[in-house]
Amino acid sequence: MLFDQFSTLIQAAVVGLGVALLPALLVEEELSSGTLVKAMDRPLRSCGSYYLVWPKERGAYPPLVKFRNWLSAECAVAASKGVVSG
């Protein structure tokens, strides 16, 4: 199966349609609750990258600033644990 949305992929895995390759950040709640479990004991490196993008004129929009700061902090925590490189 091919999914174009992470949320749909997560739900498919939750109902048992297969395994999903996802950033851990997106399934923390499901992992904590035991709804999903890791298929491997180690993270996988990806050759791709993700970019947070927004319209130039919205860079100071308060909800965006809050989300950007939260995401940066989460990435820093992951990097300090050796989960990601960069």
TrEMBL record:
BP GO terms, sorted: DNA-templated transcription
Molecular function terms from GO: DNA-binding transcription factor activity; sequence-specific DNA binding
SUPFAM superfamilies to which the protein is assigned, alphabetical: Periplasmic binding protein-like II
Highest taxon listed in the record's lineage: Bacteria
InterPro entries in the cross-refs: LysR-type_TF_proteobact-type (IPR058163), LysR_subst-bd (IPR005119)
All residue ranges annotated as the LysR substrate-binding domain in the record: 2-75
Name of a matching Pfam family: LysR_substrate
Annotated family: Belongs to the LysR transcriptional regulatory family.
Descriptive protein name: LysR substrate-binding domain-containing protein
Source taxonomy: Bacteria, Pseudomonadati, Pseudomonadota, Alphaproteobacteria, Sphingomonadales
